[in-house]
Amino acid sequence: MIWSLAVAVVMLAGKSLAAWYTGSAAIFSDALESVIHLVATGFSGFSLWYASTPPDQGHPYGHGKIAYFASAFEGVLIGAAAIVIAWVAIGDLVRGPSLQQLDAGLLIIAVLTLCNAALGFYLVRTGRTYNSLVLISNGQHVLTDMWTSLGVLVGVGLVRLTGVLWLDPVAALLVAANILWTAGRLLRRSLGGLMDRADTNTTRRVLRVLNEAKSDDTIANYHQVRHRRTDDQLWIEYHLLFPGQMSVREAHARSHEVEAALHEAFANDEVRVTAHLEPRQHNQAHPPDHVEPHDPLYDLSR
User: Fold this and answer.
1) Which residues are listed as membrane-spanning (predicted)?
2) Is residue 36 part of a domain?
3) What are the pLDDT digits (tens) for 116-139?
4) pLDDT digits (tens, 9 = 90+) for 65-98
């Protein structure tokens, strides 16, 4: 994130200089997106630090949820930048653009685009390695900036080759559309995390481990499966059903084996398991008026 912040400062300075040189709406749109990226990167850096702080009495599940808030914040800023870019581009289309020194501007943007490409791929790869939504979101923002700059290079390059000035604001409008699409993707991912949307791949892996642990003389069945994720922290909950004659000590040992299998299945994550042990005669273990909540992941009656 320190590298990302440093590069964001360089990007803003370089693109602002190129926009001042050329008077290009497309390059100005690229520079404006870099302003948003600098602010978002600073907030992402803070979020990454805050998410890594240990749980406390007020936040027993830790502070990792701020990663989704940071991603949403970045998406909102990107969307705002896209609206401003579109407004400026439409104004240039109406008034007619005035361009100058395009060669110098194109050279600056080309160099900065290569820097962004290298940084963006590095951030996304590192984020996926550590299951860090903050790094992944920031890396995708950097790559969006790279594609934005590449679009600007094509648009302004066409203006340089053809002399058709209205291509410049058109390129800016295309940039705005691309940024809006990225903003929407970030917001969808953030809302899914904040609402604890279950990942289907995680569900499939959890159920596979539980199914492999089932046995007539040990773990008879399971139900009430839940899981939630925040970056590399994965919380898993379930109820295990054991033969009624089995001792608590033995049932606990069997439950620990299942927990160990889950840790192995999610070796790249910090897994925290909560298991509830019950007798196989499940209905007899509860009062007559007890009603089990609906289980969306596994229905025991199936």
Assistant:
1) 34-54, 66-90, 102-124, 169-187
2) yes
3) 899 999 998 988 887 777 788 778
4) 887 887 788 788 878 877 877 887 787 777 766 6
Task: Pull the structure tokens for residue 254.
Answer: 């069997």
CATH code of 41's domain:
1.20.1510.10
In sequence order, what E strands does the chain have? 221-230, 233-242, 270-279
In terms of Cα–Cα distance, which of 293, 111, 81 is closest to 175?
81
Q: Does 240 lie in the same domain as 190?
A: no
Q: Structural domain of residue 21, as residue ranges?
A: 2-194
Span between the terminal Cα atoms of the chain, in Å? 48
Residue 292 belongs to some domain of the structure: no
**DSSP structural state of residue 130:** T
Q: How many domains is the chain built from?
A: 2
Question: What does the buried/exposed string (b/e) look like for 248-259 if buried means 16 or more CB atoms within 10 Å of the residue's CB?
Answer: eeebeebbeebb
Query: What pTM did the predictor assign?
Result: 0.64
Residue 297, in any domain of the structure: no
Per DSSP, the residues of 178-200 read HHHHHHHHHHHHHHHHHTTPPPH
Residue written as tokens 């790869």? 125
pLDDT of residue 301: 36
Q: Are residues 46 and 61 in the same domain?
A: yes
